[in-house]
Input
Amino acid sequence: MQRWSTVSAVWESEQFNEDSTGTVFRDVIMLALVGFVAMVIMLLPHLSKAKRQEQEQMAPGHVVVEIHWPNEMPVDVDLWVKAPGDSPVGFFNPDGHFFNLLRDDLGAEGDASGQNYEVSYSRGIAAGDYIVNVHMYGALPAGMEVPVKVVVSVRERYDDLHQILQTQVVLKRHNQEETAFRFQLTGQGELVPGSVTTLRHRLVTAPGGWKF
Output
């Protein structure tokens, strides 16, 4: 009888040790898992920021200029932009040193989007004077006036694109070219105070015809 009691005690002791070992092992695994999850959560904002910075460096469009006119008006309005020390960029010169014309809208012709807009973007930010013009390329029906919204936005390093200028220009006749903005930017994309004017400066037209 004493022998069986001894055997039972030994067996119960071994069971206790196994259960204790299993519990400790599970606790260690759980703590490690919790620690790993906590570390990932803490690193996520840094990983997201690094990825965003990489995307911002790769993405085009440090200075973005857009024009929009009513979708129901099937007319051909052109955007022309000029960066410091560069030639004007528009439909027949779509690629400059800084700017590229991303979309040349012909009005209703060949346009499946149903939207009237053009957009140019820069690669990098050049410090100096910028000019933004709109040009009524196509013919206009008698009495028609085309309101054109002009928007200038800037993306500073690692920042989101943000609007710095907006206006409206009204076009009333064929070959009309108007200056929407003349302004200055710093190399960091900051608008120079007091630099914004609408002083007319032709980029593509001249009295009686074209500049080019």
About this structure: Strands lie at 63-68, 77-82, 99-103, 117-122, 128-136, 146-154, 162-171, 177-185, 205-206, 209-210. The first helix runs from residue 2 to 58.
